[in-house]
Amino acid sequence: MTQAAARIAPALSILAARKELASSQDMEVHHMERSGFTEEQIRHALKQATLGSPISDICMRMGVSEATFHSWKVHYDGLASYELKLLNRLENECNRLERLIAILALNKVILQDTLGAKE
C-alpha cells in the first residue's frame, strides 16, 4: 500500500464506521428506491387500508409486495406533504454534506502528503 493510500484509508474507514454506527443505533435515514408510484397514489393506498380495505387486496391491485406497502406506511404515515418535502430536502442535504466531507478528507490527505514530500 502506498503512503497516500495508507493515509486515505482512515478517512474512508471513518465514513464507513459512521454509517455502520448510525445503522446500529437506528439513526440512519433509510432511503427508499424511487418507485413508479406518485406520493398521491401511495397516500391513497394507505388511506384505503385505514378505511378497512385488506392490505393484501390493495397490494395485489397495485402490484407491490406487502413489505413494500409496510415500508410506505412507515415512511409516509402521519407525515404531511410539506413534512415529506422537508424530509427529502434534508436527506439530500445530508448526502451532499457527506460527499463533501469525503472529498475534503481526501484533499487534506493529499495536501499533507504534498507538504510532507517537500520537506
UniProtKB/TrEMBL annotation:
UniProt cross-references to InterPro entries, sorted A to Z: Homeodomain-like_sf, Transposase_8, Transposase_8_domain
BP terms from Gene Ontology: DNA transposition
Pfam families given in the database record: HTH_Tnp_1 (PF01527)
GO molecular function: DNA binding; transposase activity
PANTHER family the UniProt entry points to: LOW CALCIUM RESPONSE LOCUS PROTEIN S (PTHR33609), TRANSPOSASE (PTHR33609:SF1)
Protein name in the entry: Transposase
Organism: Achromobacter pestifer
